[in-house]
Design brief:
Organism: Fictibacillus macauensis ZFHKF-1
Radius of gyration: 35 Å
Strand content: under 5%
Oligomer: single chain
Order of helices and strands: HHHHH
Structural class: mainly alpha
Protein name: DUF4190 domain-containing protein
Keywords: Membrane, Transmembrane, Transmembrane helix
Length: 129
Amino acid sequence: MDHKHSDDRRNKPVLDDRNSLYREEMAAEALPLSGAVALPEHEERGEQIDRRSRSEEERRESVHAGKVWAMFAVISSVLSLFIVPIVFGLIGIVCGIVGAKRGSAVAGYTGVGIGLASIIMSILLAPFF
């Protein structure tokens, strides 16, 4: 009887026992993480990726807006060297500060510097003209 029982074990494939014990899902992380096809356990991860991409997009828009403010500051500050220095100088200073805070520090502070220089020169040179 032992001999017959050992023949049954020998003829029975080992993989059947193994497959019944291990029921794992394979390659779940290969699925795209969009809302319609994501697995429930991956939905939170997909939301984090969406939040991250939205924050990067908002940062890019903010930097672009900062560049616009900073370039307007430089233009108005240079204009203040020739026409109405106090008005255009103040516009250049304010726009330069806004542009620098929104991500375009070099151009923003350049506009602030030129605007300040224009206002100081106009105040110091006003008594001579």
